[in-house]
Amino acid sequence: MADRPPDDDIRPVSFVNRRRLLLAVGGMAVTGVTAPRLGGSLTPALAADHQAVTTRHRVRRRRRPRYPLDKPLYYVDDASKSIALTIDDGPDPVYTPQVLRLLHRYQITATFSMIGLHAAAFPHLAREVHEAGHKICNHTWNHADLAGFPAHRVHDEITRASHAIHAATGVHPALFRAPYGAWSSEVIEECERARMIPLDWSVDPRDWSMPGVRHIVRNIMKNTQPGSIILEHDGGGNRSETVKALRIVLPRLLDKGYRFTTP
After folding, report:
1. Is residue 64 part of a domain?
2. Dihedral class, residue 41 (left if φ above 0, else alpha if ψ from -120 to 50, else beta)
3. How confident is the model at residue 151 (pLDDT cuts 50, 70, 90)?
4. What is the distance, to the nearest Å, from the Cα of residue 230 to the centroid of all Cα atoms in its chain?
5. Is the residue at 12 inside a domain?
6. Where does residue 230 rank: exposed (0-12), middle (13-18), buried (19+ CB within 10 A)?
7. Alpha-carbon torsion (161, 164, 168, 172), positive or negative
8. Neighbours of 44 (CB within 10 A)
9. pLDDT (tens digit, 9 = 90+) per residue, 115-144?
C-alpha cells in the first residue's frame, strides 16, 4: 500500500470486536515508563529505560502482511524491491539539515516522524522537510509512552502534535508512529478516529543508543529485504553516528537495486 492512503470507503471493524480480538490474543503491552528527555544525549540510565521499553513493547512480526486496520503497519508493498526509510524524533537544528542534504544527494524520499514539541520549536525545519517532498508522520507531542495512557491522554498527545505540525507545514499528518512501538487499543482507536495509519518498523539498528557506525550499517544491510521499513533518528540526542551511517548505507542500498518509497 505504498504511496497511497487507505481507501476512504473501507469501513474498519468496530472497536468492540477489535478489543475482544486484542484480549483474545493477549493484547498489547500496557506498561509504561518515563520517556527520555529529547534535548540531549541519553544518559546510561535513560538509555537502559529506552531499551527496556522498546523490548517490552515489540510485537511479533509477520513477513510483509497486507495492512490490517486494527494493527500497525510494519512493511510496505515490496514490489520492485521497495523499502521505506523513516526518520524519527525531529526536527532537530543540527541533524535534520544534514539528513535532508543526504536524501537530496541520493534523490530519496523518506518519512519524518515528528514530535509536536519540536515542530513547534523549529517550524522552519518542519516546513523545510515538507517542501523537500518528504512525508510527515505524527510522533506525539513529547515522545510519551502511550501504552498505559487512558484514551483522553492519548487523544491529547496525538492531537497537539498534529496541530503543531499543521501550523508549521500546512500538512495534516496521515500517519502516526507510537514512541517505543508502544501500541494499545486506545492508541489504535485514536488513529482510526483521526484517520491516521499506525506506522511501525521492521528494521531497527538502534542508532539512538549510539552502538557505532559499523553496527548501524551492518544491521541495516543484513536485515533489510523488499518491503522493509527502516527506523533511524534525526532528533532526541547526538545523531552523528546516524548521519555517518546513512552516508554509507544509502548508496549501498541503491546499488543493491532497492527503491525508496513512503508508506
Report:
1. no
2. beta
3. very high
4. 9
5. no
6. buried
7. positive
8. 7
9. 999 999 999 999 999 999 999 999 999 999
For range 212-237, the mean pLDDT: 98
| CATH number, residue 219 | 3.20.20.370
Q: What percent of the chain has pLDDT over 70?
A: 73
Q: How many residues does the chain have?
A: 263
Q: How far apart are CA 155 and CA 41, in angstroms?
A: 28
Partners of 75 in beta bridges: 228
- Residues marked active site are found at 88, 233
> Considering the domain boundaries, does residue 133 fall inside one?
yes
Q: What is the mean pLDDT of residues 95-117?
A: 98
User: Distance between CA atoms of 200 and 146, rounded to whole angstroms?
Assistant: 14
For residue 259, the surrounding DSSP H or E stretch is strand 259-261
pTM of the model: 0.76
Once rounded to an integer, what is the mean pLDDT over residues 95-103? 98
Please tell me the total count of domains within the chain: 1
Range of the domain at 244: 73-261
Contact 89, 38 (CB under 8 A): yes
Does 239 map to a domain? yes
SS3 126: helix
Q: What mean pLDDT comes out for the span 195-214? A: 98
Q: Identify the band that residue 69 occupies on the pLDDT scale cut at 50, 70 and 90.
A: low
Using an 8 Å Cβ cutoff, are 96 and 47 in contact? no
* DSSP 8-state secondary structure symbol assigned to residue 207: G
C-alpha cell at 125: 525545519
Report angle CA 195, 197, 199 to the nearest 5 degrees: 155
